[in-house]
Amino acid sequence: MTGYLLVLCAAVLWALIGPLSKFLFAEGVTPLEVAFWRSTIGWGLFAVQALALRTGQRAKASDLPALAAFGLVGVALFYGSYQVAIEHVGAALGSVLLYTAPAWVALLSRLVLAEPTTPAKLCAVAATILGVALVSLSGGGTVKPSALGVLAGLTAGFTYALYYIFGKKFLTRYDTATLFLYALPVGSLCLLPFVHFAPKSPSAWALLVLLSAATTWGGYSVYYAGLKRLEATRAAVVATLEPVIAAWLAWWWWNERFGPAGYLGSGLILAAVLLMVAEGARRRPTGSPS
Prior knowledge:
Blueprint: H1 2-15, H2 17-26, H3 31-53, H4 64-98, H5 101-112, H6 119-137, H7 147-170, H8 176-191, H9 202-227, H10 232-239, H11 241-254, H12 260-283
């Protein structure tokens, strides 16, 4: 039960990315500056944790190029594109597009990890493509898709998928704090040339700290703590509540609503996620490690 609660907590924390970011945009903070501070403050919190609890590890020199690449793609590009998507299409649609990640994983695992392509994977990819088309072209609601916003959301989903590919190789070597101690500062440095720093009010700084503490340091910490107590597939099912919670918060705070086609497309994307999870559970031998 503890594992489920920890992963659910992570889903709730990650669902705050869109709503908190929209509050920051209203304060005059640009999407890329939000991404920069989310990465930088989050790194500071992981550094404090590593110093206080002595949990940090020294990475092998041979792994540094891969860790730097993860910082570039998995932090700078992922954080930046997701913030741009939230600005242009809203928190609800942005989170739905983020969860195209399992379809990207299905494609990448075939190309990079030589994992077999199954009928379930092909159905999931097809459902995701159809779902994205429906939410992108939907009308009748308050969510107004734009080409840039949808492209940014799909980019966020693609880069989020790389967490799985990267994790297959490195999460068995290093703990979570160590990975982000190396990756987050690289992401911040890559974002820095593109950031326009605006004057910020005390409330904007408070929101930046809250966003970083909740969604970067807190979200990753409680998710991986829950993953130690659950099978990965069970954790993935609980984590799919993130876009549902994000959409509910966006409706509550800003009245963001999809049209009928948008809700159908969102349902198809989430169904594809669950299909991928079920496929993973079916193919994993009983008693094998997650």
